[in-house]
Amino acid sequence: xxxxxxxxxxxxxxxxxxxxxxxxxxxxxxxxxxxxxxxxxxxxxxxxxxxxxxxxxxxxxxxxxxxxxxxxxxxxxxxxxxxxxxxxxxxxxxxxxxxxxxxxxxxxxxxxxxxxxxxxxxxxxxxxxxxxxxxxxxxxxxxxxxxxxx
Length: 150
Hints:
The chain is of the alpha+beta class.
């Protein structure tokens, strides 16, 4: 098993068993709801947006290990970042998961999120990993329509 695959499994398991930033924060200025009807993942992303910054970000919901880990790592990556950095990281993460499987992770600010490269090998799981991110985008856009992966 390759080192990246081992790291992927380790990180996914850690974040799925001990999700970070789970629960509704005190101050919420925007939120969005998302679901993946194929596997039943549902989540809500909560944001405290002030002065062009993601002051706080958290989430609630339930889902598979990949969806849970993605939401957990997303919130860790974005807390305290600018809203524009949040939009940019959304684009980079989306590219990571939609690039052809034979390509390595794209260059950019992904950091630990690059472990999700392995998800590309399982197209049905891409929706699990991207659901939190699409829900984040809806919250950043203050779009009241529920997000769905279908």
